[in-house]
Write a structure and sequence with these properties.
It is a single chain. The protein is an all-alpha fold and about 425 residues long. It has a domain of about 210 residues. Helices cover about 80% and strands about 0% of the residues. The protein has 22 helices and no strands. Helix 6 packs antiparallel against helix 7 and helix 20 runs antiparallel to helix 22.
Length: about 425
């Protein structure tokens, strides 16, 4: 069989298994990645090099920190404070959580934010006696929206910013207005769509308001260690560029410091890592490398460049919309890595230059950022939330996520098209 056809067949079969869940999705991704190696589509060295350890170690480190924070009871304390602020109304609680998640994702990154928010959310849903799935889906989508707005909010933004020489402030100036507009529409939609489904009885609401949240902090000694370590980790994330450290390094350092200072058993800490999530990404990165190795992704980029001709506006749309659709299937991180040189070449061909004034870079950033909300595998945050929900006994199916994600993603992509046209192309 032709190498390209073989790579495409392996990816399609693995993805079908992930979507239908006929076998566990982590097993499907790993089998797909290993098939790429065993059948000679990609050599072992390149397959392993394609595994983004920054993503893997960032997730692992933050999972340990989040778990140890959870043992202190601080998430329960925050949950009750949030519920009281919303007067026990589950829909208002959901809107507040989405807002907190979006803002947090802008200044940390969406993965870190959902790792911290999910324990709080599950506890809140339990005390309000409501189904947590709408909360989790809405929150992860809010995290992806918020992540679009800054250079550090989403891993692809870091890749794009580095390639295009776009700094932190420029990213805020160009991306935040659109992210705020999309978030505002999203919060209104969340309120209207979920309000009929999320109703708490008056006795439940009253019982929540009567909870003394101070009693929920069960391990103040650990909190005195975990709190400063978590806060220090977050601050270090904000200045990771100046420190010359990757977020993954900071997360692992924070986790190691917490294990030592908090006298945490290393075996216990490692048990709380979501290994399913990490190995899912290992398989996915290997599969996408197989597609790249045989030239399928570079051919896509060349085709986009050929179709756009000398039209910058058409080129921007041809970068944006395929990014929305394909990053949701291939995952935003490997897709961005492959497309950055393609967009750079398109920019040179069209003579639009580099930097923040180039609409093609923003088309790619908006496409992969908002496209992440289409499927459960579009972003690392999505995969993490789905796996944690399943572990807690709440299944989020691929099609369930897709049903909500389609509306959110198409709306965001439509607004992105309008924003790109009005800001960079029309005048």
């Amino acid at each position: 069989m032709d190498e390209r056809a073989l790579a495409l067949a392996i990816f399609a079969l693995a993805y079908l298994a992930i979507v239908t869940e006929i076998i566990p999705k982590t097993a499907a991704a790993l089998l797909g990645g290993l098939a790429m190696v065993v059948l000679g589509v990609v050599d072992q060295e390149h397959a392993f090099e394609a595994i983004d350890l920054d993503v893997i170690f960032l997730l692992a480190g933050m999972m340990i920190i989040a778990h140890e924070l959870g043992r202190t009871g601080v998430f329960q304390w925050l949950a009750v404070r949030t519920a009281k602020l919303a007067r026990g109304d589950p829909t208002l609680v959901l809107v507040l959580l989405c807002l907190i998640t979006a803002v947090g994702s802008a200044f940390l990154d969406n993965v870190t934010t959902v790792v911290l928010m999910v324990p709080l959310t599950l506890f809140l849903a339990r005390i309000l006696s409501v189904e947590p799935v709408p909360f989790l889906i809405a929150e992860v989508m809010a995290s992806n929206i918020g992540g679009v707005s800054t250079l550090v909010g989403d891993p692809p933004n870091v890749v794009i910013g580095s390639a295009a020489d776009i700094d932190f402030l420029e990213f805020i100036v160009h991306a935040t207005p659109l992210a705020v507009a999309v978030l505002a529409l999203f919060l209104v939609a969340v309120y209207l769509l979920f309000r009929p489904r999320l109703r708490a009885s008056n006795p439940v609401r009253e019982s929540v308001l009567e909870i003394d949240e101070r009693e929920l902090v069960t391990n103040p000694r650990l909190l005195r260690v975990a709190g400063p370590v978590a806060l220090g980790t977050i601050v270090a994330f904000l200045f990771h560029g100046a420190l010359g450290l990757e977020p993954a390094t900071i997360a692992l350092a924070g986790a190691a410091l917490l294990i030592v200072l908090g006298r945490v058993s290393i075996e216990e800490a490692l048990r709380e890592v979501e290994w399913n999530t990490l190995f899912f990404f290992v398989g996915l990165f290997m599969m996408v490398q197989g597609l790249a190795e045989v030239g399928l992704l570079s051919d896509l980029g060349q085709a986009l460049s050929d179709v756009s001709g000398d039209s910058v506006g058409l080129a921007a749309m041809l970068v944006l919309w395929p990014a929305v659709l394909l990053s949701s299937v291939l995952n935003q991180i490997p897709y961005t890595t492959v497309m950055v040189p393609v967009v750079g070449e398109m920019s040179r061909t069209l003579g639009v230059g580099e930097g923040a004034q180039n609409p093609l870079w923003w088309a790619l950033a908006f496409g992969v950022g908002f496209g992440a909300n289409l499927t459960t595998v579009g972003a690392a945050a999505n995969v993490y939330v789905v796996n944690v929900a399943a572990r807690a006994g709440h299944r989020i199916g691929f099609l369930t996520f897709l049903r909500y994600g389609t509306l959110v993603t198409l709306t965001a992509a439509g607004l992105s098209s309008l924003y790109l046209w009005l800001r960079y192309l029309a005048f």
